[in-house]
Amino acid sequence: MLLIHCPYCDDTLPELEFTYAGEAHIARPADPSALSDAEWRDFLFIRTNARGPHYERWRHVGCGRFFNALRDTVSDRFLMTYKAGEARPDLNNPTLTREAAE
Amino acid sequence: MTYEKHQFHASPILIEEIAPGLRLSLRVKPAHRATLARAMGLDLPSRVGARAAAHGAEALCLGPDEWLITAPEGAGLPKAARAVYSDAPHSLVDISDREITLRLSGPAAVDALTTCCPRDVAAMAVGTAARTVFDSATVIVWRDGPAEFRMDVWRSFAPHVRALLAQVETEFHAGL
């Protein structure tokens, strides 16, 4: 079973307490009525479908919070997790790539 | 000559339902936490899983802005909280009837919870609590002692949880 670190509980807990909630860092448009059909389509349906590190949202049943995670979709390894609203971590960060190589 | 062998060992686990009490769900922004705690006379811990008790009431931190409060029936907490509503806006909901509480005690209590909880129950510190899942039903597990637990179960999930625990109990009695 995967162990996931919850940034709010500050604890590493079993996967069964977590729910996947789609790709992260997709901002809702500030003025939806100003969007064209193509932009709406992109916002609603077009996703990265990354092979490798993927920014995604997860929810923890324990604290009831959504947070963001950076997971490698090939190895299924969680590179890091961080609180919702925090900036997207830099993929070129050497500590992340070292973990991914392990 | 025939003889009968009796088992006089204490039951490895005792599961009982606790009498209902007041149960409140509190949501308040961390900035207003201290004001509300002072008004209610009950500390609101800020670390997830931590508990605080005062005057028979108990507060458990479930999330960064969420607390569960248990108190004896008819406690004055909601009234005290309402008095400071303008200073500390919050949501305090009576959920007494939403869940039932089971007490699990005895040397096999940890093993019984481990059968269906993915969390490492044995590693939980005494005096903490956690919201987790029990065979996919959301429950809150309170550790009151090394071999004493309480478990809050939503009443619609209670028959499922009780049935699983009854099966576990049977297996323990059979020595499995």
Automatic annotation (TrEMBL), chain A:
An annotated Gene Ontology molecular function: sarcosine oxidase activity
Superkingdom field: Bacteria
UniProt xrefs under InterPro entries: SoxD (IPR006279), SoxD_sf (IPR038561)
Pfam families associated with the record: SoxD
BP term (GO), one: tetrahydrofolate metabolic process
Protein name: Sarcosine oxidase subunit delta
Lineage: Bacteria, Pseudomonadati, Pseudomonadota, Alphaproteobacteria, Rhodobacterales
Automatic annotation (TrEMBL), chain B:
InterPro entries: SoxG, TrmE/GcvT-like
Origin: domain of life: Bacteria
Pfam families the record matches: SoxG (PF04268)
Protein name, per record: Sarcosine oxidase subunit gamma
